[in-house]
Specification:
- It is a single chain.
- The chain has 105 residues and is an alpha+beta fold.
- The protein has one domain: Translation Initiation Factor IF3.
- It has 2 helices and 4 strands; from the N terminus they run ββααββ.
- A 4-stranded mixed β-sheet has the order 1-3-4-2.
- It is elongated and about 45 Å long.
Length: 105
C-alpha cells in the first residue's frame, strides 16, 4: 500500500476516492520513564525511552489508518497528516493520530 503526504502519487493516477481514514493511538506516560526523562532533561541529551514510545505510537496509528483504507477496498492513502496531542491530567498521555484519504490507484 502506498501512503503519502502528497495529494497524488506521481505516475499512478487515482481511479477512485473512498473517503477519509484515520488511526489514533493514545499512550500513557510511565512513572519511571518520566523520572529518567527528567534526569536526561537536566543533564542534556535525548530521551530515548520517550522517542521509542513515540515511534511505536506513530507506527500503530499509521497501521490502523492503512487497515481502514484496505477495509474500504483501497490500495493507497494520500494527503496523510500526522498529529500529536498531549492529553489527560497534567499531560500524562500522548495521542498520535494519522488521517488521509483512502484511494484506489
Amino acid at each position: 500500500m502506498i501512503v503519502t503526504t502528497t495529494p497524488t502519487v506521481e505516475g499512478h493516477p487515482v481511479k477512485g476516492y473512498l473517503g477519509i481514514v484515520t488511526g489514533e493511538v493514545i499512550v500513557g506516560a510511565n512513572l519511571f520513564r518520566d523520572l529518567f526523562a527528567s534526569i536526561t532533561d537536566i543533564v542534556g541529551g535525548r530521551s530515548g525511552k520517550y522517542e521509542d514510545v513515540l515511534a511505536r505510537a506513530r507506527k500503530e496509528a499509521l497501521a490502523e489508518m492503512k487497515s481502514e483504507a484496505m477495509a474500504l477496498g483501497g490500495n493507497g492513502v494520500v494527503g496523510v497528516d500526522i498529529d500529536y496531542e498531549v492529553l489527560g491530567q497534567n499531560g500524562s498521555m500522548l495521542m498520535v493520530s494519522a488521517s488521509g484519504t483512502a484511494v484506489v490507484i
